[in-house]
């Protein structure tokens, strides 16, 4: 079973600060680094390190060689990544001393890819394959519809939250993943209980309060957040979702997959970075066994 991730590829620029700037405030950074990012690339790396076979669908610009090399180094199949005119997507990430962040994203190539090559690539999927997608690219609804039409399990991270995008994608989703803020935004926008959404399951991540699984006709599942020292929360949700998909791709039941994903996220936030901080399957399993 393969995890196909249709998602963004960014070049992340990290700036370490004593505190996040107030309006009009200028701060000197105490540290700076560049690494692979984007919600799609983060989820691909998280799933691959967690043991899944991963293929990425996305786009880079003329400056994207470093990002492409980073994905390939993680064992992600990049045969279907397009190279388009202009720049690769990028993000400016400001981190305070408590690991909290503020992020600015420029979509770049993520919004310039062509639809037809992606649909053509999806002719290679198997019935049991999984599709991961998020809200940082063009064509989310078209790709989700194509995936569901081919019998794939569709896992959708409704982030960054855009109600128009969520409305368009929801009819083609099996599992909807949101953090608590996004869940509140969705509830306010649609004014319906989660059990009335056209999806099979809803996963809500709540940071230090853990995560929950809600599916029709089955008991809710709650997994607590594992004790950890928080260094950087950037990409924690992507780590959880990628690990969740990886666990499902290897036949795990929802309760097992949720525990695995919670352990992965606990490890990831204890390290600096996004994709570079994603844990590997062996260390996730060790943490699951000791908790």
TrEMBL record:
Pathway: Carbohydrate metabolism; D-ribose degradation; D-ribose 5-phosphate from beta-D-ribopyranose: step 2/2. GO terms for biological process: D-ribose catabolic process. Residues 3-279 form the Carbohydrate kinase PfkB domain. It is found in: Cytoplasm. Activated by a monovalent cation that binds near, but not in, the active site. The most likely occupant of the site in vivo is potassium. Ion binding induces a conformational change that may alter substrate affinity. It is an enzyme of class 2 (transferase). Keywords: ATP-binding, Carbohydrate metabolism, Cytoplasm, Kinase, Magnesium, Metal-binding, Nucleotide-binding, Potassium, Transferase. Requires a divalent cation, most likely magnesium in vivo, as an electrophilic catalyst to aid phosphoryl group transfer. It is the chelate of the metal and the nucleotide that is the actual substrate. GO terms for molecular function: ATP binding; metal ion binding; ribokinase activity. Its cofactor is Mg(2+). GO terms for cellular component: cytoplasm. K(+) binds at residues 232, 234, 268, 271, 273. CDD domains: ribokinase. SUPFAM superfamilies: Ribokinase-like (SSF53613). The active site is at 238 (proton acceptor). Its EC number is 2.7.1.15. Substrate binds at residues 10-12, 38-42, 136, 238. This is Ribokinase. It comes from Roseinatronobacter bogoriensis subsp. barguzinensis. The lineage of its organism: Bacteria, Pseudomonadati, Pseudomonadota, Alphaproteobacteria, Rhodobacterales. The gene is rbsK.
């Amino acid at each position: 079973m393969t995890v196909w991730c249709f998602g963004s590829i960014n070049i992340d620029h990290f700036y370490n600060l004593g505190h996040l700037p107030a309006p009009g405030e200028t701060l000197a950074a105490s540290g700076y680094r560049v690494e692979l990012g984007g919600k799609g690339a983060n989820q691909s790396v998280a799933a691959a390190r967690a043991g899944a076979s991963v293929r990425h669908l996305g786009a880079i610009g003329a400056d994207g060689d470093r990002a492409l090399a980073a994905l390939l180094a993680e064992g992600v199949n990049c045969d279907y990544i397009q190279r388009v005119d202009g720049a690769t997507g990028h993000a400016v990430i400001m981190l305070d001393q408590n690991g909290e962040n503020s992020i600015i994203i420029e979509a770049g190539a993520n919004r310039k890819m062509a639809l037809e090559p992606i649909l053509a690539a999806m002719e290679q999927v198997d019935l049991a394959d999984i599709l991961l997608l998020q809200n940082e690219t063009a064509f989310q609804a078209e790709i989700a519809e194509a995936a569901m039409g081919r019998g794939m399990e569709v896992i959708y991270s409704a982030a960054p939250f855009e109600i128009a995008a969520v409305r368009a994608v929801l009819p083609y989703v099996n599992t909807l993943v949101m953090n608590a803020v996004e869940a509140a935004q969705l509830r306010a926008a649609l004014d319906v209980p989660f059990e009335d959404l056209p999806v099979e399951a809803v996963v809500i991540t709540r940071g230090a309060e853990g995560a929950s699984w809600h599916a029709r006709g089955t008991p809710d599942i709650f997994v607590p957040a594992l004790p950890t020292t928080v260094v950087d929360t950037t990409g924690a949700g992507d780590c959880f979702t990628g690990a969740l998909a990886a666990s499902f791709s290897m036949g795990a039941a929802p309760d097992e997959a949720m525990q695995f994903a919670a352990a992965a996220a606990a490890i990831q936030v204890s390290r600096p970075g996004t994709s570079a901080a994603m844990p590997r399957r062996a260390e996730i399993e060790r943490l699951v066994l000791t908790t």
